[in-house]
Structures are given as C-alpha cells and as structure tokens.
Amino acid sequence: MERTRTDETSAEVIAPDFRHTPAAVEALTAALWRERELLDSLLYALSAQQRLLETGSTRWLARATAQVSEHIEALREIEVVRSMITDQLVEELRLPASSSLLDLAAAAGEPTVSIHRDLHAATSALVEEIDRTMRVNDDLLLALVGPQPAASSDGRA
Fold it and tell me: pLDDT (tens digit, 9 = 90+) per residue, 58-95?
C-alpha cells in the first residue's frame, strides 16, 4: 500500500493493491483510521473556534473557520477513498451492494471485526461530539453577530 501525507488536514492518499482481499481490508482499515484522525482534528478546530466565539474574539475567527473548512474538505476526500475501497471489497467478497462496513468486517473475520467495531464506536462518539460542538458554535455566532436579514426573492437582503 502506498501512502503519502502532506499535513494533518490531508486525506492521505491510499492506493491499495486490490489483487488480494487482505490488502483491500488493510486499506479500508487504514482509511477508517485516517477518517477517525481527521474527525478528531476537526473537533479540535471546532473547539478552538468555540473558544474564540465564547470570548467574542473575532481577530482569529476567520482563520479558525478556514481550518474547520479544511478539515471538512479532507473528510470529504477520505470518504471518497473509503467508498472506492468499500465498493471493491463488496465486489471481491461477493456481498450485497447494501453491505455495511461492519458486514465487510464480518466477512473478513477477526481481528478485523473487533478493530472495525471499536473504530465504529469511537467514530460515532466523535461525530456526536462534533454535531453538538457545531450547534453550540452556530448559536454563539448568532449571538455574536445577531440575526441576519433574510434575502429577498431577487437575492438582495
């Protein structure tokens, strides 16, 4: 498996060798770990953004928001990689197209099942925390800048 990493917001290019299912399973596991790392980095960036919003400090707010956007873009990229690997594994393992990641892990056997179950639990918890933090940040931003006028039908405020 070939890997390159440019920075913490990189989706990390994963080029698996699909000639053997174990390599594809390894590539999927690596993509899931990278997704978890990116989610953790996104939560950090959102937490930093939240501190700025809580204190009313607008000086660094644009930078914090840009970092959040970079992490979200990196997550989109790794989701594409994960989807490609998943599609290939579904085909190789002759599973239904609607198979979940946990179904793929079950077909691969241990230790993949345990690893993916733990990753799923950790990722789900991170996503819930990210959702809560984003809602709080939205509320704080609204309180900081006030409600914005609704746009008219011709696009003007």
Answer: 889 999 999 999 999 999 999 999 999 999 888 888 88
Assessment of whether the complete model's pTM goes beyond 0.85: no
CA distance 89 to 156: 49
- Which sequence spans correspond to the domains of the chain? 2-9+17-111
> What's the chain look like in SS3?
CEEECCCCCCCCEEECCCCCHHHHHHHHHHHHHHHHHHHHHHHHHHHHHHHHHHHCCCCCHHHHHHHHHHHHHHHHHHHHHHHHHHHHHHHHCCCCCCCCHHHHHHHHCCCHHHHHHHHHHHHHHHHHHHHHHHHHHHHHHHHHHCCCCCCCCCCCC
